[in-house]
């Protein structure tokens, strides 16, 4: 009986081993089949991706495939937006902005803010500018809303603050509402550069415009010509545009354009290239640069030289635009004397 029991246990053990071996074999076949199926699926995906992208040499994962598809969709969207932007620019000076979800139109970004430098005793000149091109009241607002052009007279204060001249300016501004009054500037020739600098700083902080222009109160500005000229430079973030010149630095005090710091300009006493002072334009980025660094930007005797000096060491595109040479009037000129 003992021998028979031992034989039964041995037989049972062999059966169990056989079953385990068979199970392991079937499991191996199953796992191998699944791995083969997975590899075939991956190969199929790679071939499909190669067929679509034309890249038959590298195998990329499904996640990478989805990323490529997403990037292509974004490229299509950007291309469509660029077409819309290009079409909008050809319709006017200012790109048309999309509407909000509630149907209201977003506020247009101004094309340019023009600061017209004026003096305390120049009321007649300001009147002539308003009559000639700037307008007042509703007509002033019209060029702002329709053409994106904001024009303001820029003036400082009398050396005797609060005197009759200051009160006269305040009274005029209460009627016309077209002044930028710089309380930190004294109306004097020696503060002309500071006046222009603070105008750029003030305007850049108040208006988010594409450009900022310095002008004077004895020239006529052709708004249409200005708009079309500036529209050609919208893609350049750091443009300095004007009638560019350079010339002699006058070192004698009795000369009209005397430069007290003449010695800084070298032995040949010649100015660096800069825009002529009657009218010139800078982009938003440059106006912000002036605003941020106003306390450390040096001023020379003449505002056009000072402005040019602020951009000498920067990566700025100097645009020599003959339409800003205000000596002679034509239909294409931007400015001319009045």
UniProtKB/TrEMBL annotation:
Gene3D superfamilies: 3.90.550.50. Its EC number is 2.4.1.-. It is an enzyme of class 2 (transferase). The keyword Repressor does not apply. Residues 13-90 form the DUF4094 domain. InterPro entries: DUF4094, Glyco_trans_31. GO terms for molecular function: galactosyltransferase activity. It is found in: Golgi apparatus membrane. It is a single-pass type II membrane protein. GO terms for cellular component: Golgi membrane. It comes from the Eukaryota. The keyword Acetylation does not apply. Its cofactor is Mn(2+). Pathway: Protein modification; protein glycosylation. Keywords: Glycosyltransferase, Golgi apparatus, Manganese, Membrane, Signal-anchor, Transferase, Transmembrane, Transmembrane helix. Belongs to the glycosyltransferase 31 family. This is Hexosyltransferase. The lineage of its organism: Eukaryota, Viridiplantae, Streptophyta, Embryophyta, Tracheophyta.
